[in-house]
Amino acid sequence: MLRLLSRVCTSTPNQRNLKAAAVHRSVCSALTTTACSGFAVNLIMEPKLYRPPPEVRGMTSLDKDAFTQTISVPALRVPTGVLNKVVKSLRKATIQRPGVPRVVQDKEESSDFRLVLLDPHRVTSPSSFSAAEAEALRSFSVPEDLQYYELRLTYHNLKSEEVLEAVLPQGQDVTSGFSRVGHIAHMNLREHQLPYKNLIGQVIMDKNPGVTCVVNKTNMIDSTYRNFKMEVLAGEENMVAKVKENGVTYEFDFSRVYWNPRLSTEHQRVVQLVKRGDTVFDVFAGVGPFAVPAARLGANVLANDLNPESHRWLQHNCKLNKVEKKVRTFNLDGRAFIQGPVKQELPALLTGDASVHVVMNLPALALEFLDAFRGLLHQELSCDENLPTVHCYGFSKDDNPETDVVERASRSVGFPLKDRCSVHFVRNVAPNKDMMCVSFRLPKEVLFSDDQEQTEPSAEPAPKRQKCEEATDST
Predict the structure, then answer these.
(1) Burial (Cβ within 10 Å: 0-12, 13-18, ≥19) of residue 244
(2) How far apart are CA 459 and CA 214, in angstroms?
(3) 474 and 221 in contact (C-beta within 8 Å)?
(4) What CA dihedral angle connects 81, 83, 85 and 89, to 10 degrees?
(5) Which of 334, 336, 301 is CA-nearest to residue 318?
(6) What's residue 379's pLDDT?
(7) pLDDT digits (tens, 9 = 90+) for 390-435
């Protein structure tokens, strides 16, 4: 529990200016010691408020006690009768620290007064208060005389980035960011951070309520099954996560399937294009972030994934969200799914009124699968009214990613798509690497063959597919 030491020294009007100057010097430079009413007060007023003890630098096994430090902060002595009103009026000037109260007992432990702790970077003298704040203090008859309170900061009062900045070598990147997947925090540590990986994991778990497992990716994504090996840095080894995205609940083994919480907005964007009665073909469905919400909207969904684990959790999530009757699931290679179930269902759908959507979210490879639509159906089945709309994802490192993905999609389908498609920027996944979505109505010149011979499903074995280029991002 936080211990707040109650040494307080009151400044007279003449002392106040001297004190303010001392605080200002300490903020701008180093440690200052001054005498005040018989107490020696250490004014550790770094711009970041907390100046870590030098002995924590290079620590690889977390010693929480080593981070304890006492600092001096300004305070106002406020009558309890107006305390809430004063705190509300000074909300921008009060101290903001994890686990640190803004109001503490005054030195005399009087029931009539409390001390309101202030941010030492915001308030260095009475003149630091804004006009509105000063007026509020006058209206409540609260003197602007600053007092100084010794505050004991512990590990529990520090932010994760402060702890890691204190521990890791100076001048090197500090990683405190992560992807949250249920109770799991997923990190991508760099080489220089690996000696501190277990400490980093423990800090992330300590500072983020609900995180009970911290993992680090240890290899690039396998494009075949879109998962990656990981090691547990801290906490329990429970990889079965439960997440909620856009009002839909999903469960899956994070170590064996693909899931990216950064794609929730994109999932929602595409699903909102779907209407009740439409049909959705999800070629690389994963655990169902497109398929399940589309089915919940009333669409008929055929969802496929090559990864047996993804297929299993896809079925589980359909049942979990009570849409199993609206989703037919498949465990096929993407090209085999297009040239099998998609080919079988399309002829009847082309003569209907409801829209047809094909979602292809495998950005490392999906553009290459567009050739599976070439000559998929007989010419006599042609219908100009209800051709399917394809939403295909791809990575691009080109200076003009929009043009790049359109040109690559055009080459794959064998038909120019310029001026016949739209391109949506999804996210930047790495320096000079963007994830894009190209959407287009499948041209009848592509879908229908000129002869009676139809394309057979490819027998290409899945393990021959290339690996994802980028080892530092989970896409």
Answers:
(1) exposed
(2) 39
(3) yes
(4) 150
(5) 301
(6) 67
(7) 999 999 999 999 999 999 999 999 999 999 999 999 999 988 999 9
Confidence of residue 227 (pLDDT cuts 50, 70, 90): low
CB 299: neighbour CB atoms within 10 A?
Answer: 23
> Sign (positive/negative) of CA torsion 15, 124, 97, 140?
positive
Of residues 408, 284, 278, 300, the one with CA closest to residue 354: 278
Concatenating the DSSP letter of every residue in 343-399 gives HHHHHHHHTSSS-EEEEE--TTTGGGGGGGGTT-B-GGG--SS-PPEEEEEEEE-SS
Please give the average per-residue pLDDT across 63-73, as a whole number.
Answer: 91
For residue 190, the tally of other CB atoms under 10 A from its CB is 11
Distance of alpha carbon 167 from alpha carbon 181, whole angstroms: 26
Instruction: Name the pLDDT band for 218 (thresholds 50, 70, 90).
Output: confident
| Sign, Cα dihedral of 138, 139, 143, 149 | negative
pTM of this structure: 0.74
The residue-averaged pLDDT of 133-162 equals 92
Q: How many whole angstroms separate alpha carbon 149 and alpha carbon 115?
A: 9
The residues, any chain, with a CB within 8 Å of residue 268's CB and separated by 6 or more, are 246, 293
Residue 459: Cβ-neighbour burial (10 angstroms; 0-12, 13-18, 19+): exposed
CA dihedral 314, 320, 321, 322 (to 10 degrees): 100
| Structure-block tokens of residue 344 | 């079988």
Assigned token pair, 184: 């799991």
d(CA 127, CA 233): 48
Rounded Cα–Cα distance for residues 434 and 402 (Å): 10
Question: 441 is written with which tokens?
Answer: 């109505």
- Extract the tokens encoding 368: 């290459």
